[in-house]
Amino acid sequence: xxxxxxxxxxxxxxxxxxxxxxxxxxxxxxxxxxxxxxxxxxxxxxxxxxxxxxxxxxxxxxxxxxxxxxxxxxxxxxxxxxxxxxxxxxxxxxxxxxxxxxxxxxxxxx
Length: 110
Prior knowledge:
Blueprint: H1 14-36, H2 42-63, H3 71-105
Helix pairs in contact: 1-2
């Protein structure tokens, strides 16, 4: 009696994974080149974070198969970190206002 194996998931071509692996290698190279060329200041941090987010997005989309998931699951994974970033930005804005107010109206200062 022969048992047939069934695969419940989708099969993706190996070429796709090799392409994404190559893209990750190129993005990592660009990230290291930022240090190699000595880029400093906000441009350095923007580039490093930009390449990091691109690499993380590729990993989540392809290797974790989020590109083929239902939209509700994608929202459940992606919306909370975005909201955390929005709340952090709001806190930074409020902290700047608070320090400005303290320095403006306080005779003691910090």
